[in-house]
Design brief:
Length: 174
């Protein structure tokens, strides 16, 4: 197995147009439809990084800040911020564009966690992710804190063992 890969090797972009079947009764993109697109884009990213079948383990903090109207062009962009053992954190951002009006806005950001699995669905190790740009480095550095927070919330890590989180709070209250 390749021991490490650049974060950029997993970069994935997906572009879709919002059509009538994608919308709610206000003619805006349905949240569930957007989550579906985000899950697909992020899964492709995790597959590119691991060259494995991957499953979604968790999705963090998706908020819908602005409606995306019918006819908009939605662009999703994702990459692996950091890989642990069998799991990978994927950052994804979504932009919505009204091309005729020349308008573009960032509509969502989220972190997905995928786990690479073997033919029997058992977790299997993945290559390390190596950041290169400043943005990739910043997301790599903060990934351990996010991992600990999501594992605490999932009941998989005791709060007292979340050393990175504790360090953050101790730093802020010092
Ligand atoms: C994700 C899954 C493979 C983990 O299996 P498991 O038996 O709990 O395996 P482990 O305890 O060894 O954990 C494996 C990895 O998953 C990570 N993980 C497990 N649950 C997690 C969660 N809720 N959030 C983030 N990461 C999680 C662990 O931290 C571990 O990461 P690491 O190997 O990088 O340290 C298993 O729970 C699963 O198959 N879930 C269903 C996935 C699915 O069907 N998704 C689609 C939903 S419709």
């Amino acid at each position: 197995m390749t021991k490490q890969k650049f974060a950029s090797e997993s970069l994935t972009t997906m572009t879709e147009m919002v059509l009538p079947n994608d919308t709610n009764t206000l003619n805006n993109l349905m949240g569930g439809r957007l989550l579906h697109l985000m899950d697909i884009c992020a899964a492709i990213t995790a597959q590119k990084h691991s060259n494995r079948v991957v499953v979604t383990a968790s999705v963090d903090n998706v908020s819908f800040s602005a409606p995306i109207p019918l006819g908009s062009v939605v662009t999703l962009r994702s990459w692996v911020t950091r890989a642990f053992n069998s799991s990978m954190e994927v950052y994804i951002e979504v932009h919505a564009e009204n091309i005729p009006a020349g308008e573009r806005l960032m509509s969502n950001k989220a972190f997905f966690t995928f786990v690479a699995v073997d033919q029997l669905g058992r977790p299997i190790d993945v290559p390390a992710a190596v950041p290169q740009t400043d943005e990739e480095k910043a997301l790599f550095d903060s990934a351990l804190r996010r991992r600990q927070l999501r594992l605490v919330l999932a009941g998989r890590l005791k709060p007292q063992d979340a050393t990175e989180l504790r360090a953050l709070f101790e730093l802020e209250t010092a």
